[in-house]
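To: structure subgroup
Subject: Chain for Friday's discussion

All,

I'm putting the inputs and outputs inline so they're searchable in the archive.
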Amino acid sequence: MLGRMQPSLELLFSQLGLPNSPAAIELYIRTHQLPAHVFLHDAPFWNKAQRSLLISHLVQDDDWAIWVDELNQQLHMDAQRPKVLRSA
């Protein structure tokens, strides 16, 4: 059934078995930020099935790949922000 639906971040979260309301997605992204050197599929919070799903979409470069890329960018937001130096 998901194969016939228009891919979205909400449906990707559903495929991953995660809560997929806008508030739940925002909370997940805020609380699961990754360092720049950690690839999305290597994140420690994925189980084997979730990791496999993410890799599969990227390798197939299917309609879901853009949403996997979006998730990757959002989970690396903190790593992409310029660091602000504080004076003592």
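Points worth raising on Friday:
Helices lie at 9-15, 22-31, 48-60, 65-75, 77-80.
The mean pLDDT is 91.

D.
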